[in-house]
Amino acid sequence: MKIKLTSVFVNDQNKALDFYTKTLGFIKKTDISAGNYRWLTVVSAEDPNGSQLVLEPNANPAARTYQESILKQGIPASMFFVDDIQKEFQRLKKLGVTFTMEPTKTPGSTIARFDDTVGNLIQITQLS
């Protein structure tokens, strides 16, 4: 069993694509028109054949409610791993990313959380 796709709900696919590619450094993998929306995926530049992240519209009221609820509770919608969290934190801060949690040591890792500008908190993690 393999994970090939996972998704985050976004309130604006164009803005999400811009943030995830230009700010986070992912690359666009798939962009197919699907009526009013797009089948839009990005992948890690470090692993272009790896798992894809679907930037999925939150047009469904249940998706929007879920997204808004976990955001209000401070729960990350997704987690990405980094080799050097301090370096990534500094890089993203310089690009204007808003962090809700600066790098914080936890058992077995250091984590930080930021706003992805399209309705989600994202956590980055460096394993110890």
Order of secondary-structure elements: EHEEEHEHEEE
CATH second-level architecture: Roll
State the strand order across the main sheet: 1-4-3-2
Shape label: globular
Strand content: 35-45%
Assigned CATH superfamily: 2,3-Dihydroxybiphenyl 1,2-Dioxygenase, domain 1
Number of strands: 8
Q: Figure out the total of helices.
A: 3
Give me the secondary-structure topology.
Elements: E1 5-10, H1 13-23, E2 27-34, E3 37-43, E4 52-57, H2 61-72, E5 78-81, H3 85-94, E6 99-106, E7 109-115, E8 121-127
Protein described:
26% of the residues lie in helices and 41% in strands. With 128 residues, it is an alpha/beta fold. The chain has a single domain (5-127), classed as 2,3-Dihydroxybiphenyl 1,2-Dioxygenase, domain 1, CATH 3.10.180.10. The mean pLDDT is 97. Strands 1-4-3-2 form a four-stranded mixed sheet. A four-stranded mixed sheet has the order 5-8-7-6.
Brief overview, please?
26% of the residues lie in helices and 41% in strands. The protein is of the alpha/beta class and 128 residues long.
